[in-house]
Write a structure and sequence with these properties.
This protein has 16 helices and 2 strands. The protein has helices at 14-45, 50-66, 68-99, 104-133, 138-149, 151-166, 169-179, 183-188, 204-219, 227-239, 247-276, 281-309, 313-333, 337-358, 371-400, 404-435, and strands spanning 4-7, 198-201. The chain has a two-stranded antiparallel ribbon. The two termini are 40 Å apart.
Length: 436
């Protein structure tokens, strides 16, 4: 008999995982966009400066990511379901505590630290589960998940707008804390992928080759290596730090971190920028919902556009970044409400395509057994960029009195990502040409 191998189901129960991922993202991503909408006026009333407000949001966006390698270890040790339940507990607790916060320190601890850790662990867990369940249909599954999650930025701003008429900002935050408990439903749906794997026969030669490779790796272990070397090797093995020896992976990692910093901070600052433009809460909510509609449409269309042009995930992601740079510059020059609504729709188009392929760049390059650690390293790099860069943006805002300089800095950082990846592509093409 031919030896067999197990493959991801690429469907079946995997579509339940898509639903779970969409439900979690619906809640988490909506909060990221609406936190500024809830507290934009309240921060000023409590005497919090722009730097303090930016630091709170930057800490929330970065702290959980700094713990990414730990999340990767938890996922490898305990699986997606248990890690997701822990993440949901932290997320919900953090939001409830945020609703009782009045000072900079209390916001920083509740929303910046506790809620951040739960949010990032939830996102990392759901993303890994989806990538484990799908292989050939990964881009389509990711497209469905992020499209469904895209309803959040459409619906939730209007819900926040309605609630703000009846309740205080803290009461609205507490209500959202109750909504956050739905992440436990998504966590409960994360069955281990091994329960649903498909069995497929493979050639004996392939199996023998795999056994031979495994034997060669095993013989490399030196039984007489020092204790120090064993400790270092175990540490490297636990966190899969050997990934950092790959220059292409490092280039991908740095590029994603810089682009994520720019996009996330722009998203967080949009309500404050629009407030400076003179828009009221209702107009800001309409801007967010218009952006969300376009975002949702092109999250669904993004995978099919990439498949039609047969372009890899990273190239599609780079195209989306290029479009975003141009739209952000136009955004700065337009303060007319109706012009801003057109810009909101254009931003949503680019963000929708970017969102789909952002989660596919590393899974398409890294072996599936290293995905938990690769995801952890990625979130750590993102967290460092967001924390440092977000603080700098807050200082720039206080020093200049305008968010224009902040957006220009974000665009310059995004350009760095495109330049880095373009240089890598030219180097790889040159090496391949020499080999031929």
């Amino acid at each position: 008999m031919k030896p067999s191998t197990k493959l991801p189901p690429d469907g079946g129960y995997g579509w339940v995982i898509v639903f779970a991922s969409a439900l979690s993202s619906f809640i988490v991503l909506s909060l990221l966009q609406c936190f500024g909408l809830i507290f934009s006026d309240t921060f000023a009333q409590w005497g919090l400066s722009a730097t303090q407000g930016s630091l709170i949001m930057s800490t929330n966006a970065s702290f959980g990511k700094l713990a990414g390698p730990i999340t990767g270890v938890l996922l490898k040790a305990y699986g997606c379901r248990k890690t997701a339940i822990l993440a949901g507990s932290l997320f919900t607790t953090g939001m409830v505590l945020t609703s009782f916060s009045h000072t900079f320190v209390s916001f920083l601890v509740a929303y910046g630290l506790i809620a951040s850790l739960g949010m990032q662990m939830t996102e990392s867990t759901q993303r890994l589960a989806l990538n484990l369940y799908f292989q050939k249909k990964r881009s389509v599954a990711m497209g469905f998940a992020v499209t469904a999650a895209g309803f959040g930025p459409i619906v939730v701003p209007q819900l926040i707008r309605f609630l703000m008429r009846e309740y205080t900002a803290q009461e609205v935050c507490l209500i959202y804390g109750g909504i956050c408990t739905n992440v436990f439903v998504a966590a409960a749906l994360l069955q281990p992928v091994k329960w649903h794997m498909k069995v497929q026969a493979k050639d004996r030669e392939e199996g023998n080759e795999l056994l031979s490779t495994t034997h060669q790796i095993a013989t490399l272990n030196d039984e007489n290596e020092s204790l120090y070397r064993k400790v270092v090797n175990n540490f490297v093995k636990i966190f899969d730090l050997d990934l950092l020896k790959d220059p292409i992976f490092v280039n991908i990692l740095v590029g994603l971190a810089l682009a994520t910093f720019s996009e996330l901070n722009f998203t967080l600052l949009v309500p404050f920028i629009l407030h400076d433009f003179g828009l009221d809460t209702g107009q800001i909510a309409n801007f967010q919902s218009t952006l969300g509609v376009a975002d949702m449409i092109f999250r669904f269309c993004g995978p099919y556009i990439g498949n039609y042009f047969t372009k890899p995930s990273r190239l599609m992601y780079a195209y989306a970044l290029t479009i975003l740079i141009g739209i952000r510059f136009v955004f700065l020059a337009s303060q007319n409400y109706y012009a801003l609504m057109v810009i909101a729709f254009a931003l949503g188009i680019a963000k929708g395509v970017r969102k789909v392929y952002m989660w596919l760049v590393i899974p398409d390059y890294v072996p599936v057994e290293k995905l938990p650690s690769a995801g952890g390293i990625e979130t750590l790099a993102n967290g460092i960029c967001i924390l440092v860069g977000g603080t700098i943006l807050g200082v720039l805002r206080d020093a200049t009195g305008s968010y224009v300089v902040c957006v220009i800095v974000m665009n310059c950082v995004t350009v760095v990502t495109i330049v880095m990846w373009s240089i890598e592509a030219l180097i790889v093409r040159y090496k391949n040409h020499n080999k031929e």
